[in-house]
Amino acid sequence: MEYTVSMEIALPRERVAQLLADPAHLPKWLRGLVLHEPLSGVHGQAGTKSRVILQMGQQKFECTETITRREPVDLSEIPRESVVHFEREIVGPGMWSAARERLTETGPETTLWVSENEYRFSGLLMRLVGLFMPGTFRKQSLQHMQDFKAFAEHGQDVREAKG
């Protein structure tokens, strides 16, 4: 299963990239995050493997995230014509996914965030979920992007949200 979602954020691309890359901010916009700890490498750098636990309703989902690409490595003073790339693979029970994030400057104070997502399922339960509920994955990706946008633009923290 593959899909692409995108969103414009009213901040300069360099600032968006820095906020996305900072592990201290993850709990503020990544809804349901219980734990995100590097197992090897430096958080956010290519090659880093991390243990990630997400809480979705009553279910906890544990997976391993590997950063496969981060360009540029230095997120300060990004050249105007450059596209920022964050890519990762996530492996969990019955599934593998890849997310390819691109940040493009659309104006001096606006950034286009495009997220290409790919999922492969191996377990029967996950194959059924992928077959019968593919919109759930796209909806969740959009929710994460909306939560990040609210955090980046207005300082809203998902942990303080009602309901």
Task: Supply the key terms.
single chain, 163 residues, alpha+beta, Alpha-D-Glucose-1,6-Bisphosphate, Chain A, domain 4, seven-stranded antiparallel β-sheet, 7 strands, globular, START-like_dom_sf, SRPBCC family protein
Layout of helices and strands:
Blueprint: E1 2-9, H1 13-21, H2 26-29, E2 33-40, E3 49-56, E4 59-71, E5 84-92, E6 95-107, E7 110-121, H3 124-132, H4 134-154
Antiparallel strand pairs: 1-7, 2-3, 3-4, 4-5, 5-6, 6-7
Question: Can you describe what's shown?
Answer:
A hairpin with a 2-residue loop joins strand 3 (49-56) and strand 4. It is globular and about 45 Å long. The two termini are 30 Å apart. The chain has helices at residues 13-21, 26-29, 124-132, 134-154; strands spanning 2-9, 33-40, 49-56, 59-71, 84-92, 95-107, 110-121. It has a 7-stranded antiparallel β-sheet. With 163 residues, it is of the alpha+beta class. It has a single domain (2-32, 71-160), classed as 2-Layer Sandwich (Alpha-D-Glucose-1,6-Bisphosphate, Chain A, domain 4). This is SRPBCC family protein. It comes from Paractinoplanes hotanensis.
Brief rundown of the structure:
With 163 residues, the protein is an alpha+beta fold. The protein has 4 helices and 7 strands, in the order βααββββββαα. It has one domain (2-32, 71-160): 2-Layer Sandwich (Alpha-D-Glucose-1,6-Bisphosphate, Chain A, domain 4).
Roughly what fraction of the amino acids lie in strands? 35-45%
Write out the CATH superfamily name: START domain
Overall body shape: globular
- Assembly annotation: single chain
Query: What is the name of the CATH class?
Result: Alpha Beta
Unreliable residue stretches: none
Which architecture name does CATH use?
A: 2-Layer Sandwich
